[in-house]
Write a structure and sequence with these properties.
mainly alpha; 3 helices
């Protein structure tokens, strides 16, 4: 799927704002696959077309291909240099102290 940087940021925010709101509402862990934007939930996007159900990851992979980098030759974290997001506390979402890792390990903010 060919997404622009602007679309990626918009969709990323939409997904994670929904996760945050649902988490507060249900007071339980919410999975990305439950988002209403995925086709199997009546939305527009097929989650299997989006790498790791993550719009920035999909964008990063497309940028790697655009720059003739073989995505299969690099460790997952090397694609992070193509991520369109600024993670503030780290250079990617997969390290232990990132917001994403905290969500994975902590589950929800209650």
């Amino acid at each position: 799927m060919n997404l622009t940087k602007k679309m990626v940021v918009k969709l990323h925010r939409e997904l994670w704002e929904w996760i945050y709101a649902e988490t507060l509402k249900t007071r339980s862990f919410v999975f990305k696959e439950q988002w209403h934007g995925w086709a199997h939930n009546g939305g527009k996007y097929r989650k299997y077309d989006i790498n790791s159900e993550c719009f920035p990851c999909e964008y990063a992979l497309n940028q790697m291909v655009k720059h003739s980098v073989n995505k299969d030759d690099l460790p997952v974290t090397r694609r992070c240099r193509y991520c369109p997001l600024d993670w503030e506390i780290t250079n990617n979402c997969l390290v232990a102290n990132s917001y994403y890792s905290k969500w994975c390990w902590d589950g929800y903010p209650m």
